[in-house]
Amino acid sequence: MTDDSFRKFRCWRTAEVQQTIFSDIGSLRTQDDAVFLAAHAPVPVQRQKGPAAQGDGEAEILSALRDEIGIAGRNTLIAITGDVGTGKSHAVRWVRAHLGDDPLRHRTIYVPRDLSTLRGLLGRILEGLPGPKARQAERHLDDAIGRKSESQLRDELIDNLRQVLAHELPDQGPGAQDADDREERSFLLGKREDRNARRRDGLADILLNLRVIEHLSRDGGTVAAVIHSLQAQRSGRDESYPQFTAEDIPKNSVGIVTRLDPDARYVWESVRTAPAPAVALLNEALQRAVRMTLGFGTGLTLNEVFLETRRLLRREGAELVLLFEDLALFGLIDDDLYDQFSQQPLEDYCPLRVVFAITTARYLAVRDTVQDRITHHYVVQNLESGPDCDADPAMVTFVARYLNNARVGRDALIAARSAADERAREAGTWVPNACEIRENGQPCRHRDECFDAFGSVSTGPGGPVGLYPHNQVSLRRAARHLRDGNRLSPRSLVNDVVQSFLTTAEPEIGTGIFPTEEIRNWFFLGVNRARETIVREDELPTPEERERLRRARIAWADGEPEHPGIHLAFDLPGDVTAAAARPGPGTALPVAVPARAPEQGPVPLPSSPGQQADRAQSLYDWESNVTSLPVREMEDFRAAFHAWTAARLDLGRHLMHVGSGKIQFVLNRIFPETSFVIEGASGVRPTAGRLRFDVPQSAAGLRLLLAARWFADHGHWDSAAPDRRWEFPADFQAADLQVELENFLSGCAVAVEERFLHVITSAGGARPASAVVTLRAAALRVLGQLSRDDPARIIAAVAQPRDEVADSWSPSWQELAQPAREIIRALETGLIADFAAARQGGSPDPIVIDAAALEPTGREAIGDPAAAVARLGEFPELFSEIEQARAGLTANWDGAVASERQELLAGLQFLGAAMGSAERDIATWADELGTRANDDRVFRPMGTYPRFRQNIETLKSHPLDVVNEWIGYEAAICDPDNPAAVFDAQSWAAQARSYAGSLQSVLEAMEATVQLLEERTARSAGGNPEAIAERVAGRLDDAACLLERLGQGDR
Amino acid sequence: MSESVDDLLRRVDRALEDHASADQTTRTVKVLTDLENQLAPYVEDLDRVVAGFGALDQVRRPTERPETRALAAACREAAALVRQDKSGPENLPRTLRHINDIVNTATVTARDAWREFIDMRMPGLDSLGNLAEMLSQIRADRLQAAALRKGVTDLRALSRRLPDAASPGRATAAVDAIRAALTALLGDSDADNDEVRHFTEAVARGGAPVGALTPAVTDWMRRRGLERSFKVVAGQPPSE
Question: Would you kindly state where each structural domain of chain B is located, as residue ranges?
Fold first, then answer.
């Protein structure tokens, strides 16, 4: 910058800003009244209580105070309330500045907010009070905390706590207490013989313990916090005062209990295990202990100092005026102050005239005895703005005064006020106007250029003040920004719009980077158009430069070309000449006031064109990161993108039926509406495993959303259609946006298809249809319902519904048969049609199954079901039914087949032996014998005849040739290299097992019966004729043998 | 299955029938029991005589055998009838008598052949008893004399009985014991000396003629210290 050029012009310096602009009046020293008064703007107040007084705003408060002075016999309490930052303290300070000194009538004690320690506050009050007690109190205060270390003060505070607990706390606690509470209080405080004696074996004694003292006085504890508040600055005026908590009680008894007297030990155990009552007692003693630590212990209290002062003033005929910029300062002396407010003058004391500011929230917490004595109550009104946030002229003037302060500087302001006479002060003409005197008393050389580019405003007698580096637009946008954040107040304006902004802008303008992205902290940056239309791609070479120019145009020109003066002052990129050709702020700006986008319902349909802002504004705001996309709109976009993408899916070419419930389920899992993530908008993000399609918060994202909105609203791309519901954005071509939207949706559809095919494929590369064929074929083989002769009709056989299969398998076969039964029962064959069938048109019914692809799978499963199942591999969780089926059949097939082989062979060998040894039909023969035995009541085992009959029926139900056919399979089953024979056998194995079981049972009955008969016969006849006859015959045979040997010799 | 299905069902069938005709069954049991008792001694006798012939075969003593084929066939036929009818065949008593006859005849034949076999293995068995007595009296080795006496007794008892399977072994053992005792009593070289044997056996019978007192005998006496154990008396020695 050169001195002669408006380029990079700055008429303020950061250092001066720091000295002249105070967002918090409490931080402005009282000697800087000139700075304060130069920027002062009337504070709007509303009187809530008390008689009317002359003037408006703070002048009315001053009048009310003056009217009260001189009225004997009563105190005056004037409360000024309001929200934070609305100017309450400002009003009190203004009253102080204009009240003037009149020692004969009143003594004024002014308590500003810049007193940051309790010691400072007390010092200020004592300093203003006359009398020996006040001086004595000053000495006490200085002795108490002025010359002691923090550690020493902590010990003193604990000592004082002990004193209060041992001597001063009343036996009866505050508020209503029941018998238990009274007993507990007495127990914790300890015993004493009379009211004047020291309590023993109570909390006070526990505070003598070194371990307890160390814990109480630790860093970070309440004692340390209290002492810190006495000596050091507090972080905030409205913070609560430190209070004891259970954390201040040591957790264990190490080093404590053994050093206590026996009775005190009980108290300690109670405190340790249930600390709340003891903590309450400590807090009750704290305020008094703090006063003692400050030097206001026995013999001298702040209350006494006040009362003596009021007595002295009473005798002098003067009054005491107390002005508090913020009453809610230090909780520990609130009671002393409130006591004075309540103490009426009577005969002895002078009246008190108190003006205090306090936040509305704190005011409500002020004790009732004070509130009842409030004589005047004023409420400071906050700034208000209309819904479209037009720049309020008063607000512009308010800011302009502070801008002027920054330009003039602190020293010049103080000098000007000092030099001014009372009239000038009263009229306000003493305030210098930097724009008029900047050049050694002459107007600024850029005054006209600056006023033309940025505008000016009259702040009073000093003439127009330039708004630079603001203008009306930027101030409106700044106010909108604060309002949107619920922070619009005078303090925020001073803090943000003036102080913070000027401090940041000064170096940035100097280095040619202004405005940076940081201006988002001060301005609403919404605009009613696409950002790429504000600064075109070809207008500037780099995106950084384009963004910088966009920011300037939005904040200072509502997105229109900026005034050439602005371009020059900010040294913006690009050709100033080109910018100058555009309309400047002096002309009628085609600016629609940025307003919040209305919350969208399900696409409201305007009755006529011309509501472009309504339908596109929220998208512009979103692109500019001014406001996030409304939730409802975000949801509408998601739904639309989802529906359009789904419509583009072509799963039919993979022979999959997109209308199937299962496929829809899979699609919903991988591709929910939340897959579309609009950057900078709220809404649930897709969880892991779901597809994600990002719509960036950029020009491209804006075009996509504009296209989607237009098409959703109209269903066509004719931007000139007479029935259009809103105007297509003039800066775009409908065809271009259509192509972008189509490309986006097509890309999404491709990604969805790829992911879909991925998630329906198992680790082994199998898809649901082939998996179902494999698993059902294998299951049917296990259950003996599919033979090696079935491959030709395998798909039909596999898909055929099956009745519930009876559980009649051998124990060794159960490992396979149970999961196989479950598969036949539960594994839907519909998945075959859903995932491998062709359809005609929109019909949901398959016209042909993809048998060519599925039959080889089925044949493999018939030939070697174990290998076929093993090849499937794990299926994703989406197909839990298939995976469950697959896992069920992932068993020890070899072991099961080997065991089943042995089982079958044992049965067949039994049958073979039984059937081969009988000359007659066993069933018929045994039936006849059993019937006879039953008739003779000798059938055994007793009571089993009905079952015997059932078994006979079972035997008779199987023709002998069938049984022999079973027996004929023995050789094949016996072959360990022929597992298929075992699977084939499952078609009749259950019947064979049943037949063999029945036969076994019948033979057992016959055996039992014949044993009974033979025993009975032997018993009744003296022997068994059969056996005896056999023995006799044997003897004769022996004789024959002997005779033959006798006759033959060695022949 | 230890028993075939067919057998089991037949057993059931029969047991049912037996159960149904309890009196008949009782009678059948009695008949069969009597028959069993009647048959037993015949079979035992047959068994003994067969064993006797077996012992003779064992010592290779060929003995004429009786003709038994017809009788054996009759027995088998009877056995079949018993199994079938559970009663005694009508001609069974005659068959038993024939068995008895054959057993008696065969027993005599076998016993004689056995005795002959013993005599052949140990000639002069009877005189060995006297020798043993005499040797005892002349204070020869008493233990050996006792062994000789026991061997002679055993062999003599064996020769009187129908042999059985153990008889050949026992006979051999007894012969060996007698030979061992004689060797011990008469000396290694004299045991087989006929003159000494003749002399000692004559003494054992009551006196040997002087002529039997040969040099070999006197030498035997001297070597054995038996000179003073004998005396010469007048009279005629017992005939040999």
Answer: 2-120, 124-229
